[in-house]
Amino acid sequence: MSDIIKEHMDKTNQSENKDKLKVKSANSITTLQMAGNDLREKYGNEILSLLAVYKIANKRQEKVSEWPFPGSPEIVPSNRIAYMIDSIKHPEEIALLRMTYGKMFFVVGVLCAEHTRIGRLTDNGMDKDEAQKIIQVDKRQEEQFGQQLDKALQFADFFIRNNEDTFKDLETQIKRFLDLIFNIETITPTVDEFAMHTAQSAALKSACLSRQVGAAITNDDGDIISTGYNDVPKAGGGLYRSEYGKKDHRCAYLSKQGCSNDVYKRELKKDLSEILAD
Q1: 3-class state of residue 160 by DSSP
Q2: pTM of the predicted model, to two decimals?
Q3: Which of 76, 83, 247, 259 could serve as a FRET partner for 135 with CA atoms 20 to 30 Å apart?
């Protein structure tokens, strides 16, 4: 994605700063961040993904011309290629790529402790305050067209913890993930994965309006001992979870203003704002 931003720098407000990109520094990273924001603001939040799709399509077209029978849709090359896009910073970029490639598109979220990231940047000669600022911009910006890495990460299919002390463990995890994608062999869920699946299923039983939380207890062999979930006490006894079609008398459904708790919190917020303003 950085290369794509560089190719289209002349369409951004950072075109005069292009020389800063020759050496990796706080200035070069900030310039790329701002240029990416400019492109999103001008052409839409999914523009970088559109340009990535365009580049991949062109590369595939070049491959077609190299086949024994150019232009023949029946001929499929044996050496099919998977393309990696590094790196996506906005959820709308992910949405467009999913729409384009469907089930052939996978998002890998790379996570790293903030102090480790700062250490890596400062090891390359960057000031600590500059490193922290870059990480915060990378993580989340208030502007709709800004970088929103924390939101984009929520759509990941697989997570990698990029700490040096876990690097040896990554190879096994990544290989298993790729084997699952390409259906190399029959792979069953781990004990933890099956327990999390069960906990997620249990969460669906909750009728709580704010969040549904499930839990599962297993033994060492992964056998389910018990499941649980949060729920809401019902006036007169019992819970609100019931058969479809029965009336739910909670105020969130009866009042146009919504939940009385939320209404009261909004009133408190308004009162506090007025007091602080005075």
Answers
A1: strand
A2: 0.69
A3: 83
Cα–Cα nearest to 150, from 79, 89, 66: 89
Please state the separation of Cα 176 from the chain's center in Å.
Answer: 21
User: Which of the four pLDDT bands, split at 50, 70 and 90, describes residue 277?
Assistant: very high
B/e letters for 239-260, b = 16+ CB within 10 Å, e = fewer, are ebeeeeeeeeebeeeeeeeeee
pLDDT at 33: 86
Least Cα distance to 89 among 156, 26, 42 occurs for 156
Amino acid at 256: K
Q: Per residue in 42-60, pLDDT tens?
A: 999 999 999 999 999 988 8
Quick one: which of 198, 3, 153, 199 has its CA closest to 85?
3
pLDDT in tens, 177-201: 999 988 888 899 989 999 999 999 9
Cβ atoms within 10 Å of 6's Cβ, excluding its own = 13
Q: Which two tokens stand for residue 232?
A: 């809401």
Cα 62 to Cα 72: distance, rounded to the nearest angstrom: 14
Structure tokens at 98: 């999913």
Q: How many residues does the chain have?
A: 278
